[in-house]
Amino acid sequence: MVTLQDIHFLMPEIVMAVGAVIVMLAIAVKRDYTLSYGLTLATFLAAFGILVLNPTETRPVTELLLADPLGKFLSGLIIASAFIITIFSYPYFRIQKEVKEEYFILLILATLGAVLMTISNHFISFVISLEILSVSVFALIGYLKKLEISIEASIKYLILAAVATGFILFGFSLIYLSTGSMSLAQLTQTPAEGSFSLLLLTGLGLTIVGFGFKMALVPFHFWTPDIYSAAPAPVSTFVATISKGAAFVFLLRLFYSIGGLNNDNIWVVFAVLAIASMFVGNWLGLQQKNLKRLLAYSSISHLGYLMVGFLAFSDDGIRSSAFYLTAYFASILAAFGMITYLTSEHDGEPYMIENYRGLFWSKPWLAAFFTLVLLSLAGIPFTAGFMGKFYLLSSGMSAGKIVLLLSLVVSSTIGLFYYLKVVQVMLTRSETQHEFYIGKHSILMQAVVAVLFVVILWMGVFPSAFLSMIGM
Q1: Spatial CA neighbour of 229 closest among 326, 165, 157
Q2: How distant, in Å, are the alpha carbons of 88, 138, 233, 349, 352 from that of 343?
Q3: What are the strands, taking DSSP E only, across 191-244?
Q4: What's the rounded Cα separation, in Å, for the pair 167 and 147?
Q5: What is the CA radius of gyration of the chain?
Q6: What distance separates the 2 farthest-apart alpha carbons in the chain?
Q7: Distance (Å, rounded) from C-alpha 105 to C-alpha 23?
């Protein structure tokens, strides 16, 4: 039975659901792109404000959801990221010759699904949330119907998402058959290592495969560069951050609840996926000339780094993972925001690395901002990425995961080369220098770019402030 207190804790999600309906009704009355954009911003702003005002405590919200510090922090991170993506979307879609207003409905629904995934405490609530997210993202990827490559990517995502969900559902059914429960709270009562039956291990193995697809871990990563390069830049940003982050949070909840990492076989499987993602993602990134594909392979390696905190199997591991996820979100939002900022009506997205040749000499402040973002992704000191990797290494060291730590350090060194390649291109003069289009961006978008710049530096210099926000 739902109580008034449950409704109070669910108000951010309720606000987003109502916001999607309001945007839809506004479109039905009169198509107004700016109005739909404003209503979407107001929806995310209201949801975030209510979430901040909600008390930080651990309590069940019905049998399906859980309110706790981790869920509150990551829900806030997702809503804030969606707010930023909305701001980036406005100038991008304004110049597109498409019906634009429904984009914002899909964006709100996808964010709602992601937030519900982070607080899910039951297989049923997770699967419903996953489908809300996946169906919305499928439509967002192919939203620009004039681009055949986007339609192709959308269909590819639909098929792979269905396959991944099939693995997850089959895995969940075997876990339920073995334990008799679909609630994560009751799975905590499952005895540790010695009692892992073959049926339970099979269920967990299928679940790992499904989440491997959702998070684009190697060898389930092949869809990622195609989706990133074909989808509109704001949608690629959403897939790279919110979609993957929400899946990771439930994966953490599931395996920490059932004690799955106490089993050596499961731990080794995750370790192999993590190490492969670090090295394969960075190695393939070295070969890219397309900036969006480069960021796709970069995100694969970053999810591999994130697994180091996950595999620490400790409270420190959770904190370091939440901090790294925040640093990763800020850096990826800024990187794709750069592509969005320079998108023009006639030339489209500047998605090739060569498009950025000489940027330092024509737009030095943009080049400085993008350089900081790339250095953060590379993990250079005084940036958010460096402190994120430092905390991952710290949690891994405490847990004695030396192999993972060495893999993180070595693979990060490989990744540094392709980030610096982009910086080199921006610093290089050329007779055929690309003419950069700087559209009439709102003060709000410029403010967001400035805020991301400050956040990346702030997390790198004063990380304690963000650790205190995690509250665990």
Answers
A1: 157
A2: 11, 22, 9, 4, 12
A3: none
A4: 31
A5: 21
A6: 70
A7: 6
Distance CA 244, CA 307 (A): 12
State CA 268 to chain mean position distance: 25
- In whole angstroms, give the CA distance from residue 466 to residue 472: 11
Please give the Cα distance from 267 to 290 (Å, whole number). Answer: 35
Burial of 466 (0-12, 13-18, 19+ CB in 10 A): buried
Q: What is the pLDDT of residues 309-355, one digit of tens each?
A: 899 888 888 899 999 999 999 999 999 988 888 887 666 778 888 88
List pLDDT tens digits, range 401-417. Answer: 788 889 999 999 998 99
- Would you list the DSSP string of 53-100? HS----EEETTTEEE-HHHHHHHHHHHHHHHHHHHHHHHHHHTSSS--
DSSP 322-352: HHHHHHHHHHHHHHHHHHHHT-BTTTB---B
How far apart (Å, rounded) are the C-alpha atoms in residues 391 and 384? 11
Mean pLDDT for the stretch of residues 390-394: 90
- How far apart are alpha carbons 218 and 212 in whole angstroms? 7
Find, among 330, 278, 288, 231, the residue nearest to 425 by Cα: 288
C-alpha distances out from residue 277 to 249, 295, 303, 340, 390, Å: 18, 14, 7, 27, 19
Q: Is the pTM of this model over 0.90?
A: yes
Cα 235 off chain centre by:
11
